[in-house]
Amino acid sequence: MKKLSYLSLLLAFAGLTIFSACKDDDDAKPAAPTATAPSSIPSVTVGGSVDITFTVNTPGGYKSASVTQSAGSATISSQPTAGDQTGSVVVSYTAGTTAGAASVTITVTDNSDQTVAQNATVNVSASPVPTISDIPETATVAAGGLLGPVTANLAAEDGLASLSVTKNGQAFGTDVTYSGETSATYDFQYQTSVEEANSTITFVFTVTDSNGDTNTATHVLTVGDLPTKDVFSSAEGTGTVTWSSDTVYVLRGFVFVNDGQVLTIEPGTVIKGQPGQGSGASALIVARGGKIMAEGTAESPIIFTGLADDLNGSVPNEENALWGGVILLGKATNNNNSIANEKSIEGLPTTDDRSLYGGSADDDNSGIMRYVSIRHGGSVIGSDNEINGLTLGSVGSGTTLENIEIFANLDDGIEFFGGTANLKNAVVSLCGDDGIDLDEGYRGKIQKVLVWHTTQTVSSSDPRGGEWDGGVGADEEAMPFGSPSMANITLVLEDDNEQEVTQKEAFLFRDNIAGGLYNSIIVGHQGAAAVEFRADKESSFDRYLADELNISNNIFYNVNGVTDGANFANLFNVKEENGTATPADVTAFETDMTTNNTFVNPGFGTGVSRFTPTASEVTSDLMTGLPTGLDDLSYKGAIDPGATDPFFKDWTLTYDAIQ
C-alpha cells in the first residue's frame, strides 16, 4: 500500500511538472503582431481603384492576412513571406457606386495564431479626384544637406484649388492657391539642419480641387550624419580658414589658431573634441594675435561638444569631461606679473609659447563669439588641473562675447584671467565647480548671466556661483586691481536630493577685488554671500570699506540656510581668512547689505519659465546709472519677466533641459 502511494505521488508530481512546462511555453509566446495604416487617407473616385499599404510587424513570424471592406471590393495583392517579422500588406481596393467614406480592414495572424486587426479609411469621391505625382516616397541626405528641388505634377479634371504641405504633422511653408487650372507643377526643396542629424522627417503633400476633393502624397526623408573632418594638433595651427556648417570638425588634440591667423566658423557648425586626458585631451586655443570669428545665430548656433555626442540625446545632461574646451588668449593686462606680465594659461602644456597670455593692450581683439554653445567639456590635464568650458586669458575689450552657453563642464563654466573683455547674455549650467570665476585683475563688464548649479552635478570641493578673485598669492595687491562691474546675474543652486554637497559661498569677493554687483538674484545656495577679510594684507573687505566694492539692489532668498527675512543679516559673511575684523565693521557691513538689498522669494516659474521671476520686487528698487558698458534694464536677474521666452530659448541645451 505504501509503495502504491509513493508511485501515485511521483505520477502526480510529473503531471504538475508537465503542466508547469506547458504554462511556461504559453508565457514564452512572442509579442503580439501589430499593423499600421497609411498616414494619409487615400482617395478614389466611384468605381476607381487604389492600393492601400499597411505596415506589419510579426515578432512571432508572419502566417497570413485577410481583408474586409465596408463597400466596394478589396483583395490582398502583396504580403510578407511566411515567417517574416516585418513587411507590408498591400490591399487593392475598388470603390463601389456610392460616394463617401469607406473602410478597409486587414486581420494579420502570426505563427502563434495571435491576431491583430487594423482599419484604414478611404475617401470615395463622386467626381474625379485630383492627382499628385513624381514625389519620391523616400530619400536620404546628410545632415545639413539639401533635399531637391523635386518637381511634383498636379492634375485635376475639376480644376485645382490649393496645395498644402505638412512636416511631421505640422503645417509647413505657405499654401499654394490655384485658379481652376487642370494641371500645374510644384517645386519643393528642404534644407536640413545640423540638429536634424540621424532623424526622419515625414512630409505629406495634399492637393485639393475646386469641388473640395483631395489626394495626398507622402515623402519620408532620412537625415544622416554630417561628413567629418579631423583637425590635428600642429605647430602650423589652423591657418586662416573657414569651417562650414556642412561638415563636423573633430579636434584631435590641442588645436591652435596661431598669431596672425583667423578662424571663421559659420552658423550651425558643429565642432567635436576627441576624448582623452593629459596630453591626449582636445581643445581649441586661440593664441595671442589670433582671432576666432564664430558668429552663430539663435536659429543656427555654433556647437562645441564631445565626439560621443550625436546631438540627439546620446549623452546624458550631466555627462562631462568628454573633451577639453575653448581657450582665448590675448594681450590685455593682468596683475600676475611673475613673467613679464605673461604666463602659460592653466590647462595647457607650459612648453608651448602659444599658451602664453598677457600684455599691455587692454583694447586687444581676439574676435567674436556669438550664439555659441560649449557642452560636456572639462578634460583633466593633471592633478587639480581641468580645462574650463571657456577660458579667457588677458582677453581685451575689443573682443565680442555674447550669447554664450557652457553646459555640463567638469570644472568652471567661464573663467577670466585678467583682461578687460565684456560678457553679455550667457548661460552656465550643470558645471562641477564655479559658474563664473574671475582672477588676476579682471576689469570687464558682465551682464545677463544665468548660473544654474544642482547638487547632483556639483563635483568640486569648493564650488561657488561666483568666485571673484583680485590677484594671485603675493600679487593680490598688484596693479591693476580687479574691478569687474556685474549686473543682472542670476545664481541658482537647486538641491535635487541626489547627494549631499558642501557648497562654499554663493559668491565670494576675495584677494583684494573691488567692483560691483547690481540688480541680481541669488537663490538656493548652501553657503553665504561673502567678502574676504585679511589682516596681513589688503583684502576685498578693505575695498568695501573704501567704497570701491558695491553690492546693492540685489534679491537674495534661501542662501546660507536663511529662509526668513528676520534673519537676513545671517545670509552675509565677512570671511576672516587672516585675523579678525572689528565687530563694528562687521555690523556696519551686515546693516549695509540688508538695507541696500532685498530678501524675497523671486517666484521662479516652472518648465521653460524655471528661472523667470514673478515677484513684484524684481521690477522695483532698481540700481540705475550703472557703470559705462552696462545697460539700465527694467528688472533684476538675467531673465526678463516681461518677455514671452527667456533669452536662451532654442539655441541652448539648457532650454531643452528645463522643459
From TrEMBL:
Tree of life domain: Bacteria
Extent of the signal sequence: 1-23
InterPro entries, alphabetized: Pectin_lyase_fold/virulence (IPR011050)
Keywords: Signal
Keyword Signal: yes
PANTHER family according to UniProt: LIPL48 (PTHR41339), SECRETED PROTEIN (PTHR41339:SF1)
Protein name as it appears in the record: Uncharacterized protein
UniProt lineage: Bacteria, Pseudomonadati, Bacteroidota, Cytophagia, Cytophagales
